[in-house]
Amino acid sequence: MPELPEVQTVIAELRSLIIGKCIRKIETLWNKTLVNRSQKSLEGQCIRDILRKGKYLIFPLNESYLIIHLRMTGRLSFAPSGASRIEEEQNLNHVRLIIHFSDGSRLLFDDTRKFGRVYHVDNVREFLQHVGRDALNGQWTPEEFYKKLQGHKTGIKAWLMSQRFISGLGNIYTDESLFRANIHPERPASSLTPEEARRLFDAIRFILQQAIENMGSTISDYRDAYGNPGKNQNYFKVYKREGKPCFVCGTPILKKRVAGRSTRFCPQCQR
Question: Of 114, 186, 261, 267, which residue is the catalytic one?
Answer without folding.
Answer: 261
